[in-house]
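Forum: Protein Structure Q&A
Topic: Joint prediction for protein chains with partners

I've read a bunch of threads here and the consensus seems to be that you should model interacting components together rather than docking separate models afterwards. I'd like to see that in practice. Below is the full input, 368 residues plus whatever partners are listed. Could one of the regulars post the assembled result?
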Amino acid sequence: MGLELDAVGETGLKFYGKICAALTHEMKNALAIINENVGLLEDYNLMAQRGTPLTPERFTILSRRMVEQVDRANTLLKVMNQFSHGVDTWVEEVDLNELLSFVSMLSQRFAAQRGVSVEVESPGQKVTVTTSPFLLQNLIWCCMDFAMDAMGTGNDLRLKAESTPAGGQVTLSASNDSLADAVDRLSQYCEGALVDALQVKIETDTRSGPLVLILPKRIPQ
Amino acid sequence: MKPRVLIVDDEKEFADSLSERLTLRECDVETALSGKDAIEKLSHYNFDVVILDVAMPNMDGIETLKQVKNTKPLTEVIMLTGQATVETAVEGMQLGALDYVMKPCSTDDLLVKIKRGYERKADHEERIREAKVREFVTSPQSALREG
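Posted by a regular:
Agreed with the consensus. Here's the joint model:
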């Protein structure tokens, strides 16, 4: 018996795996820092037993470092939990500003690896469409992945959501002209079946460079 | 003599804590927060062992390893990796890294590997010295060819 995966399912699974791997890698980094500081605490304990005078300041530094890393790991776990629950309801009303902020959080590690900074423009108003939140996260992430590869180190990627008469739109713009120059490669990053499932139209302004995702007000349930 | 160790990791808190632990265990330690910073420090100081994070922004672990080996071929490199990047650490060993350790790492295991790297480099340097002496004995003019 063969395994059958449609294109949307396959790209979705790859996206899910990539994000989970990145989040757990970050958690491991936090745990590694806690591990080193617990080790230092043991070292200080041994030194104190042997009569080495230790200032309270040294313990304060260790406890501050550990509290910071516990907070960091806790935030990562919350993000991962929220991401996992993204498939609970397949189609629902989505606030595009919230979704952009969330995808931006998911892509932090990928952006840091490429030396790119991601900024979500502060929302003027709530922008809602009825769509599949998981698939839309996937599509926006694919576009960001393309943009971050095209932009190169030291540049800013800006994300913005706006209402349109027909629904909403998401604009990705780079601090250089790289998106327009690289737009021929976009199809390598975005699965056509995913674009079709979301009924999204992708437009590029070849003069100034932004990538625009035009979304319908509602996709069928 | 203490092993001279360079820790290269973009996680400052990790590099600082590990540095303090290794210093307490009689290592002479410095830290670098990027591959570029590491190469800069290597060009000014002769480290015995570099502990190198595989996943760093911009210049990653493999690129940094290549430049370390290019700058100081005898310096031993221990790759530091998360579970997902073991394949990269293996690739690093194929490119000349001595070994790898997984994060979070056991300080005792790391110290064993640092000691092995320190001894291997010292042994390699000693053999180069001996070869130069032999060359000088058989052909005294060879000394004139030295830089």
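Chain A has two domains: 5-86, 90-216.
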